[in-house]
Design a protein that fits this description.
two-stranded antiparallel ribbon; 5 helices; elongated; ABC transporter transmembrane region fold; mainly alpha
């Protein structure tokens, strides 16, 4: 069986796999956005940091101050952070659920094909083969192929997207640094 033959089993699941890829990329984006936002927020907590100006109002988080504006901003930042964590959790759940559904469907499809092929084999085949090898073919080998198609290949997408996004963010910082010089 070639690599492209394995992909042919995913043809019937193209739309579902496309949705999974979008969910994975979204989850990866949020995974990279959360530490960035937390870093920006903790930079405001530093006593040496200069305030950020939003709509003409300077914003610096002096936690000892009782200013309502700063307390409101603090709650907004925490709310955005918690919201992103909940969104990431929801995306991760949807990705896992949809991947497992496709994996179960592929497992059923491959098991039926293997079972039909085994039934079509001549009786002499079973005389020369060990019983355990045939049973392993029906159970374990099909599960390994199904896991490869739904687990390993979909696991590559977030890693590649993270590498791409990190390179993109790094290039943006480098271009800002060059422009500001």
């Amino acid at each position: 069986m070639t690599f492209w033959t394995l992909f042919s089993y995913l043809k019937t699941h193209r739309l579902a796999m496309a949705i999974i890829l979008v969910l994975l990329i979204g989850e990866t984006g949020i995974s990279l956005l959360i530490p960035y936002l937390v870093g920006q927020f903790t930079g405001l907590l530093s006593p040496d940091s200069s305030p950020i100006v939003i709509s003409g109002m300077p914003l610096s988080l002096d936690l000892a101050a009782e200013d309502a504006w700063q307390a409101g901003v603090l709650w907004w930042v925490l709310g955005i952070w918690v919201g992103l964590l909940i969104l990431q959790m929801g995306l991760r759940f949807q990705t896992g659920f949809r991947t497992n559904v496709i994996g179960a469907q592929l497992l059923t499809q491959l098991s039926c094909k293997v079972y039909n092929h085994i039934q079509a084999l001549p009786l002499g085949y079973f005389v020369t083969q060990r019983k355990g090898a045939v049973i392993a073919l029906l159970s374990n080998d099909v599960q390994v192929v199904s896991f490869f198609l739904t687990g390993v290949l979909t696991g590559l997408v977030p890693r590649l997207a993270a590498i791409f996004m990190l390179i993109l963010l790094n290039d943006v910082k480098v271009f800002r640094f060059i422009r500001d010089q």
